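FORM 7B: Structural annotation worksheet

SECTION A. Query
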Amino acid sequence: MAAQPIKFGIVGCADIARKVSRAITLSPNSTLYAVASRTHEKAAKFAKENGFPDSAKIYGSYEALLDDPEVDAVYLPLPTSLHIKWAVLAAQKKKHLLLEKPVALNVGEFDVILEACESSGVQIMDATMWMHHPRTAKMKEFLLDSSRFGDLKTVHTCFTFAADKNFLETDIRVKPDLDALGALGDVGWYCTRSILWAADFELPKSVVALHGTVYNTSGVILACSASLQWGDGKTATFHCSFLSNLTMDMAVVGTNGTLRFHDFVIPFEENKASFGTAVKSGFTELVTGWEPKPSEHIVTTELPQEALMVSEFSRLVGCVKFEGAKPEKKWPMYSRKTQLVLDAVKVSIEKGYQSVEIVE
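SECTION B. Predicted structure
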């Protein structure tokens, strides 16, 4: 007999919640149960526009949703500055937590959230969707193949998009009181996560922000870059920006092979994604081409990556709720290490681009 679907409550009606609402509907082991906003009218409008069932509960306050004993898990897409308050309260109310990124303004805040989740025995996962695409697992197989990829040497990643005037003036991601990390916390989160993923989540020894950080008039980062160094000689770089054309490039270079893809955060198409590999590359005799040529690999999926994320999170919640299992610890570990690197980049920028050691 199949387990009952996990009942989700959505706390806040941010734009990204529209996408995750759809994902909860598409996921086979979850259901849209409730939504809350600061007014009943806004929550009701959101539910109507995003396919909530007629039976869904509509709440005019976040507290009311968290007090509902039928809610198993909450998706929390609130501004980062509000995470520590509402994530902690959700955990204290025994609600499992799917938390938007960045998970906090700094690792100290996130540790408070983690402590609340651990004390209540609830699962926490951040909403980094691309981690759940089947392409990601296939690429990891290549990186772990020592004969084809070899040892990791360097990673380079870039995530940018050209925000319009309205975004740059009004979006929460450019407001110091709401999302003070700006582009570093938003698109930089993905760059950092991808680098750590390629390095099997081994933290770098140190981080140096690169000159050229761009701020808005409120002091929020709109674009920045950084270099990461490990003790064994591995290196990585990333660039993130709200001011450049949409780009989602990643290259992972090993002693024997190279992995490349150009849509690492959101695939070009919802039902399939590709990546390229090159193994023991060289030149033709007259140096007029490559031999062997890089190859392309296509991975298909019936469900979009955000639905697969919800499905995996719901599976873990179900294991805790119905089987008495302990929460899976790898997901909060991934979140914490990503936040640690972001913190170090921010400190490096503030210290005039000095090198900053990372202490776990």
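SECTION C. Observations
Residues 131-305+339-357 form a domain with the Dihydrodipicolinate Reductase; domain 2 fold (CATH 3.30.360.10). The chain has two domains: 6-129+316-326, 131-305+339-357.

SECTION D. Sign-off
Analyst initials: ____
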